[in-house]
Specification:
The chain is an alpha+beta fold. The protein has a single domain, classed as Hypothetical protein (Archaeosine Trna-guanine Transglycosylase, Chain: A, domain 4, Roll). Helix content is about 20%, strand content about 40%. It contains four helices and seven strands, in the order E-H-E-E-H-E-H-E-E-E-H. The chain has helices at about 10-20, 60-65, 105-115, 160-170, and strands at about 5-10, 25-30, 35-40, 75-90, 115-135, 140-150, 155. Strands 1, 2, 3, 4, 5, 6 and 7 form a seven-stranded mixed sheet that branches. The N and C termini lie far apart (about 35 Å). The model has no long low-confidence stretch (mean pLDDT about 90).
């Protein structure tokens, strides 16, 4: 059995966007240190009553619907696994050219980055056979789950053709 405990901590709305094929990238100001990980939902952003302002208007209803993960904190449901297929450096000034591939506003991305160069993580996301409710260790970006979670025989969220189209448009 292939299993992992490594996870990336990400807002639940973004986890669901990745898991439902609405988004295939994460934008960061640093390179990734793991090539694959479980997507562990966070609710920290819900403490900010203006969290919706970070998202494009057309995504507000999706973000509100998916703001909270299944489970009772600190244990949440993990449904997805991701592999980093590419890390693409982009000048921050051109990040608005890829806004169709993420849900954030350009202002939010530029404020968050606060750098001349951004790193776009192109993720191939897979749905687990069964969701798993578990806790995680402490961590700011990465952590470990309390349980080893199987990633055997999982299927990608997007077809090869859909994923390749996104990849080719980002390169």
């Amino acid at each position: 059995m292939t299993a992992t405990q490594k996870c990336l901590i990400e807002t639940n709305a973004n986890v669901e966007a990745l898991g439902q094929g609405k988004q295939s990238i994460l934008i960061r100001n640093y390179r990734n240190t793991l090539s694959e990980f479980l997507l562990y939902p966070s609710i920290d952003y819900l403490d900010n009553e203006k969290y919706l302002d970070s998202y494009q208007d057309k995504h507000h209803s999706f973000v509100q619907k998916n703001a909270k993960p299944e489970g009772d904190g600190p244990e949440y449901e993990i449904k997805y696994f991701a592999k980093v297929e590419e890390e693409i450096e982009k000048p921050a000034s051109t990040i608005d050219s890829i806004s169709e591939y993420h849900m954030w506003t350009n202002d939010h991305v530029n404020d968050y980055m606060n750098a001349e160069t951004t790193i776009v993580w192109l993720l191939r996301v897979y749905k687990l056979k069964e969701p798993v409710v578990t806790n995680r260790t402490n961590g700011m970006v990465y952590a470990n789950t309390d349980l080893e979670i199987s990633v055997d025989d999982i299927e990608p969220v997007l077809s090869d053709a859909e994923f390749d189209k996104i990849k080719n448009s980002l390169m």
